[in-house]
Every structure is written in C-alpha cells, then in structure tokens.
Amino acid sequence: MNIATEDIPYRQIAGETLLGRLYRPAQPARAVVVEVHGGAWVQNNRLSNAIIHEYLALRGIAVFALDFRMAPTHRYPVAVQDINYAIRWLKTNLGKLGLPQCPVGGVGTSSGGHLLTLAAIRPDDPRYLEADATLGQASARLDFLVGCWPIFDPLARYRMATTKGLQNLVNNHHAFWPDEAAMDEGNPHRMVKAEQASHMPPALVLQGTADANVEHERTDAFVALWRERGGEMEYHKFDGQPHTFIITNAGTPAANDGLAKISAFIVKRTGG
Fold first, then answer.
1. Residue 100: is the preceding peptide bond cis (ω within 30°)?
2. DSSP conformation class of 1
3. Helices 253-269 and 50-57: angle between axes, nearest 10 degrees
4. Which residues contact 214 (CB under 8 A, 6 or more apart)?
5. What's the CA angle centered on 200, arms 105 and 22, to 5 degrees?
6. Cis upstream peptide for 77 (omega within 30°)
7. pLDDT tens digit string along 31-55?
8. Whole-angstrom Cα distance, residue 265 to residue 107?
9. Could you give phi then psi for residue 133, rounded to 5 degrees?
C-alpha cells in the first residue's frame, strides 16, 4: 500500500490526549478530510472506518481520522467541541504535517455524520468553538461535507428507536444526551429548518434503504430541506443496503460504488 500512516496527538484536555490517524497519499494531497467515526456516540475509534480512509488516501486525498471524547464519560456537546478544535488544529498545522494548503472537508458516518454536520453548519457556535491562542484565526468552516448513513435528526431517531423497542439505541441516546431538549438543541434538521445554519458547504449523502438504525425517509426529508434552504447536496440511495454497508459489506458492488462516489465527489469539489 503506497500510503503512509501516523498517529498524531491533536489535543490535550483535562488529562486526556486525543489522537488522529493521518493517512498521507504518495503524491501531494489534492484535499484533506477530517473523518468522524460512528458508534451511536459511545463506541468505536479512529480506526473503525479504515476501509474508507485507505481508499481515499490511495486516490490522493489525505485523511485525518479522529478520536474524540465520547459518552457516557462525556456527553453532548463535548464531542462537537473536539471536532471543531480538530478542524482548526489541522488547518493551522498543514505545513508542519507536510500537507499542502488545499481544501479541507469532512467525512462522517452514522452518529459521526451527526457530529460533523453540527460542526459544519455552526462552525462559530459558542457551544462548540473553544478559544485557543495556539490556533490563531483558523476557522472550523469546511469546504465540503460527506455524510454516510448520518443521523440528521437525533430526536426523531430516539423516538423511532423507543417506538420500535430498539433498546440498545435508546440506551446510547440516554448515555450521550442529557434529555430530549438537548436532542432538539443539537439537531441539524431543526437548525436548517429554522435557518440557523451559518454555513452550508457542498455536501454528499449516502443512505441505504434497509437501514434499521436510520430511517431513510428521514434522510430524504433532510436532503430536501437542505436544498430548499439553498444548499447543494448530492444524494445517493442504495437499495436494500443496511446501516454501515460500506464497512459491513466491504468488497460488494454496493460498498465499492459507495466508496467510488465519495472519492468522485471530493475530486469534483477540489477541481478534478
């Protein structure tokens, strides 16, 4: 594999060191993406989506895959604060990392898609942006956004899981969110509907129609709303595919097609 990887600390806070795994392409990167893993806000780590990271790096796209503080030890909005910080840290340190000054975007899966979308649409929100003199004037604004089976409406997902008796998902919501009011506060769908999104980068969304964790109709509604509010969003639905299908069904035609669509979108957004 003609890429280099390195685990790099990007933040030290309250006695914790947060790492990102950097995937460097063999050639100068055409773009850098911050990758935010899923796991219902309570599990997984920066290695969970290595299939996506390696695929992009082999195609000239650098990836900085994040660890961040998670529930139940850390609840909303701590993870979003870490992601906001990571974006600013990465932009500040591109040269030190041996990366060119190039577009910086994000890829998020499942609950990571939720966290990344919050960071993307409210980059200057005081709930998420913590001052740090070492980061200078770096902005957390992203040049593009990719969501794979993302949770755009956590309150609706919680109510769906409760109605269907999906106790594991319900428990994870309880671990991350203080209450339903917080689920409504940290809700990308509500924010976009209320015209509270201060930044709407060009976006790509991938969603399976057999996803038991995320109702694809909810994703349909968010995509329609994003476009109504003037945002650009490319949307691909994968018939019969479950949650996390690129990872779970790695190597299948649907998984390979999903990876190709992510790469093609980023290349397009970076002048390819």
1. no
2. -
3. 50
4. 110, 149, 150, 151, 157, 207, 243
5. 15
6. yes
7. 999 999 999 999 999 999 999 999 9
8. 11
9. -60, -25
Q: With helix as H, strand as E and coil as C, how does the chain read?
A: CCCEEEEEEEEEECCEEEEEEEEECCCCCCEEEEEECCCCCCCCCCCCCHHHHHHHHCCCEEEEEECCCCCCCCCCCHHHHHHHHHHHHHHHCCCCCCCCCCCEEEEEECHHHHHHHHHHHCCCCCCCCCCCHHHCCCCCCCCCEEEECCCCCHHHHHHHHHHHCCHHHHHHHHHHCCCHHHHHHCCHHHHHHCCCCCCCCCEEEEEECCCCCCCHHHHHHHHHHHHHCCCCEEEEEECCCCCCHHHHCCCCHHHHHHHHHHHHHHHHHCCC
Q: pTM for this structure?
A: 0.97
> What span, in angstroms and rounded, lies between the C-alpha atoms of 96 and 206?
33
Longest CA span, the chain: 50
Please report which confidence band the pLDDT of residue 271 belongs to, taking 50, 70 and 90 as the band edges.
Answer: confident
Indicate whether 2 pLDDT > 90: no
**Cα(172)–Cα(19) distance, rounded to whole angstroms?**
23
Q: Beta-strand (E) ranges in 200-253?
A: 203-208, 233-238
Query: Tens digits of per-residue pLDDT, 116-134?
Result: 999 999 999 999 999 999 9
148: which strand partners? 109, 206
Burial of 92 (0-12, 13-18, 19+ CB in 10 A): middle
The residue count of the chain comes to 272
